Amino acid sequence: MPKLKTNRGAAKRFKKTASGKYKRGSSHTSHILTKKSSKRKRHLRSPKLISGGDLKNVKKLLPYS
After folding, report:
1. Residue 18 class from Cβ within 10 Å (0-12 exposed, 13-18 middle, 19+ buried)?
2. C-alpha R_g of the chain
3. If you count Cβ atoms within 10 Å of the first and of the last residue's Cβ in the chain, which end, N or C, has fewer?
4. By the 8 A CB rule, do 29 and 43 touch?
5. What is the pLDDT of residue 15?
6. Which DSSP string do the residues of 7-52 spell out, in sequence order?
7. What SS3 state is found at 56?
8. pLDDT in the model for residue 22
């Protein structure tokens, strides 16, 4: 079997945690920030976990993580 290639776009977006889950950044943080409240922007800064339904796809994109 040849080596599997890591999807580089996914590698930049997802990081594996020590417990084996994957964390991701939030969307809606790049522009049009003036109309968003400070509380909303603050909550968007914190990393989120990948939902269970997407876990299989992310693991396929990151075979060696």
Report:
1. exposed
2. 15
3. N
4. no
5. 97
6. -HHHHHHEEE-TTS-EEE--SS-SS--TTS-HHHHHHHHS-EEPPH
7. helix
8. 97
| Residue 22 bridge partners (DSSP) | 16
- Positions of the chain with pLDDT lower than 70, given as ranges: none
- Residue 3: predicted pLDDT: 95
CB 7 within 8 A of CB 62: yes
pTM over 0.70: yes
Asked if residues 17 and 23 have their Cβ atoms less than 8 Å apart, the reply is yes
pLDDT of residue 36: 97
